[in-house]
Design brief:
mainly beta, Porin, twelve-stranded antiparallel β-sheet, eleven-stranded antiparallel β-sheet, 4 helices, elongated, OMP/PagP_B-barrel, tRNA modification GTPase
Length: 405
């Protein structure tokens, strides 16, 4: 079954080209200053791109364009990227990698800068993994980085170089601005967007802000009842196997899903507290116990908490397939396995203390409301506190979902 699930996941990966990442109306300007209207593949870039795909018409073949040949490109009313050769400081903001130099260390690079606000002054953003830098220019002047840098002082404290406030105070002044407007600025997108918007408004200048056109669904809360098919096998210190029967049971989970803010809502993380239980009895013949019969009873229930990374593949506006990988924490189990002889006398009582495990799932969601998923959990050791005992607990689940919001 594990192999079959993996094969399904690989097959679904091949559907990536049919996802909701689509070609949308846009344009590009090449090195000869020719503007070409086209359809650009909108992948909702998390990091600033160095290339993009486009089509000249709906039915034409996709082509690729790179930063070497394109001066500017954009998707109508959604995004705009401008090529510029700038000095950029890539100093880390990781507290363990801070330098003792408060000054930026500039390096000249050719980048596609994302336009956030286009007005009397223009605000740009550059993102590369955890690195975020903001740039600006005014009245078509050269583009400069807004300087911000964290550094370590001589006494090993963390200080900040907020030179960007001085840059804005000098270059983007307005009689209506109070001193605290600059003092309260943060080196963050929303704070800077507000400032550049206010600056253009102060000078009665029209602005254009580029934002995704769709309303994002950042958060989902989903009821997730399920049918579980579970089995348990054990090996005692005498190397005798006890294989319990496969049992069908029910469980219930409540999943909180957070949609990640990039790549067109295709990635999400989920946390799902789930109740599960398993009961079974097995009678085996054994010469190692008086009476020659060993009766094993297992009564196992717990709260699982899968921590999941999920990827969606959009089939159309109402349907999507998803795959997820989960790290499953098994918590709050007060269960045991009772071993008795045929006369009812106790042989052993094993307290269940389970280990965490992994899970793989594949599912379908309709109208962002109804879902179904098949999930396979890898082997879980449930009596890990006993040195000479081994166990394997496996579960295959059919999970139904109803999203409340």
């Amino acid at each position: 079954m594990k192999t079959q699930i993996l094969c399904l996941l690989i097959t679904i990966l091949g559907l990536n080209c049919y996802s909701q990442i689509s070609f949308e109306k846009g344009y590009y300007i090449d090195n000869t200053n020719q503007k070409v209207n086209c359809l650009i593949k909108n992948v909702d870039w998390k990091n600033n791109p160095t290339k993009f795909e486009y089509k000249l018409s709906e039915n034409s073949e996709p082509k690729k364009a790179t930063i070497k040949s394109i001066k500017e490109f954009g998707i109508n009313n959604i995004s705009k990227y401008v090529r510029s050769t700038v000095n950029i400081d890539r100093s880390s903001e990781n507290i363990n990698k801070l330098s003792t130099d408060k000054n930026p260390i500039f390096k000249e690079e050719q980048l596609f800068l994302k336009v956030l606000v286009d007005g009397k002054a223009t605000l740009y953003q550059y993102a590369d993994s955890n690195l975020k830098r903001y740039f600006y220019n005014k009245d078509n002047s050269d583009i400069e980085q807004l300087i911000f840098k964290s550094y370590k002082t001589a006494d090993n404290n963390v200080a900040k170089n907020n030179r960007f406030k001085q840059q804005l105070f000098i270059d983007l002044n307005c009689a209506n601005f109070k001193s605290r407007k600059i003092e309260n600025l943060e080196y963050k997108k929303n704070s800077l967007v507000r400032f550049f918007t206010d600056y253009s408004n102060c000078h009665n200048y029209d602005i254009t802000k580029f934002e995704p056109k769709e309303k994002r669904d950042w958060f989902n809360l989903t009821l997730r009842p399920r049918i579980n098919s579970s089995s348990l096998s054990m090996q005692d210190p005498n190397s005798e196997n006890i294989d319990f029967e496969n049992k069908i049971g029910v469980g219930f989970g409540l999943e909180t899903e957070f949609i990640l803010p990039f790549n067109k809502n295709k990635w999400a993380i989920g946390i799902e507290p789930t109740y599960q239980s398993y009961k079974s009895e097995k009678t085996t013949s054994s010469s190692n116990f008086s009476g020659g019969v060993l009766i094993a009873n297992v009564d196992y229930s717990s709260i699982e908490v899968p921590l999941s990374l999920r990827h969606y593949f959009f089939l159309n506006n109402n349907s999507k397939i998803f795959i997820n990988a989960s790290y499953v924490l098994d918590l709050f189990s007060k269960s045991s396995i009772e071993l008795t002889r045929s006369d009812g006398s106790s042989v052993n009582s094993l307290e269940i203390n389970s280990r965490n495990n992994l899970a793989l799932g594949i599912g379908y969601k309709h109208n962002d409301r109804y879902s179904v998923e098949i999930r396979y959990q890898t082997n879980r050791e449930i009596i890990g506190n006993y040195l000479y005992w081994n166990s394997e607990y496996k579960t295959l689940s059919l999970i139904f979902g109803y999203s409340l919001f």
